[in-house]
Amino acid sequence: MTAPMxxxxxxxxxxxxxxxxxxxxxGRHCLIENGEVVFEDGAITFVxxxxxxxxxxxxxxxxxxxxxxxxxxDALSDLDTTILGYDNQPAAxxxxxxxxxxxxxxxxxxxxxxxxxxxKAYAFAxxxxxxxxxxxxxxxxxYRAWGETVEEFTDAAHAAAGxxxxxxxxxxxxxxxxxxxxxxVIGTHYDEARGLAELEAAIAFAERVEGAAGGLIRAMLAPxxxxxxxxxxxxxxxxxxxxxxxxxxQHACQSRIExxxxxxxxxxxxxxxxxxxxxxxxRSLLPHGTYVSGSRHIDxxxxxxxxxxxxxxxxxxxxxxxxxxxxxxDHFGRYRExxxxxxLGTDTAPPDMILNMQVGMILTRxxxxxxxxxxxxxxxxxxxxxxxxxxxxxxxxRLQPGARADINVFxxxxxxxxxxIDPIQTMMLAGHGRDFSDVIIDGRFVMENRMIAGRDETADxxxxxxxxxxxxxxxxxxxxxxxxxxxxFSSSFPxxxxxxxxxxxxxx
Length: 508
Known about the structure:
Blueprint: E1 14-25, E2 28-40, E3 43-48, E4 57-60, E5 64-68, E6 70-76, H1 82-86, E7 98-99, H2 100-105, H3 113-129, E8 132-138, H4 150-163, E9 166-169, E10 172-173, E11 176-180, E12 186-190, H5 192-209, E13 217-219, E14 222-223, H6 231-244, E15 248-249, H7 256-266, H8 270-276, E16 284-286, H9 304-311, E17 314-317, H10 319-324, H11 332-337, E18 341-344, H12 353-368, H13 376-390, E19 407-411, H14 423-430, E20 436-441, E21 444-448, E22 451-452, H15 457-473, H16 485-488
Parallel strand pairs: 1-4, 1-5, 6-8, 7-11, 8-9, 9-13, 10-14, 15-16, 16-17, 17-18
Antiparallel strand pairs: 1-2, 2-3, 5-19, 11-12, 19-20, 20-21, 21-22
Helix pairs in contact: 3-4, 3-15, 5-6, 8-9, 12-13
């Protein structure tokens, strides 16, 4: 397929310098003081100090950390609905599980195609602002008629190509959906024919999109949560992934409801069930890997983690969204020691990979009972090398000759960062996504001095707010017993609204 291209690459070798550079040598990251990186035609040609070759353009970043761009395996591409469930629980009574009445009435798209296209463009720009250079988009299906559409992802491909973001794209599909009965019991509603048709459309899309925009756009398969899939859907998905040799992302082991539904329906845990179908492979990306046998969440004995490890699949760890819902893997250090492959995903707003790493480190140290359980570089590796290796892309996630020029620049002069002893430790201790000043993807300057060409951040935020409020207004239609929005979404404190008239708060 054809797609609009981002701004052109600079002509000739480009040299960038900084107080610190995260180079990659002998299979591991290393910190280069007063380092230099040179790239040309989208590829890195030199990393180190003392470059003596030709230079067409030079950019000095002074007191900054130049590092490999983050690889986000579960990248928020939504006007995130997590905030609507943050203090509004349980999910089944707050519109995050469809009631039977809504399914019987016929689910419908709550966003127009134009709104979905804006959603993707808005989210992609925010990923770049947070130092993400490779993204595998994820959005909620709660407000969809069923799965995502090819038309929507055609628009997403155009948005990514125009921006210059490296993406793996594939519309989410499913053969089932969670449903809550009038009595509050959660089960699954199936429409296998519809889901299989969506799979075929997703395969056709993958064949068409793979390698578009000069290789910035690649394909993936994205079946929805494991409890919304039938065996035939998983078998056909695995076959297509093998035939096309593309990643397949499958949300699994992310909630107690999911785990119990799969166990009830198939007599096996989610990993056991996937393994029995021959579904897992080195192409499998599995957010979130939290609810597994023998963990603090699941007291059932079993080999869930060993099954995932032995298949060569990757756990996509999303600590921020898991922690917000009271969960966490138990724990990063233990998973790594077991030999599990681990990458990272944002999955929620803000799409801040640094915040995810910070929360992940805190949760890991709490679960492990010691500050020595994990170190800063362990999470940084997961956000870079771990994600790249999960995609089987040795040319991503590291700055070394031959790798793609996917680079972020972290500004170490921001006053809230305090004093710097080690730049990676400083990032983990006090940094956030807004500290990235520049982002380079495939040798193109996608963000410079926090500015992205063609994006008006203020106007985008205003449009996003209006679109989001329109979605909220439709929530009663797909919420159990259809209460008004005032009952679905609680307020932190009593609200005195402008429509209530004058607010006389003066003294008597």
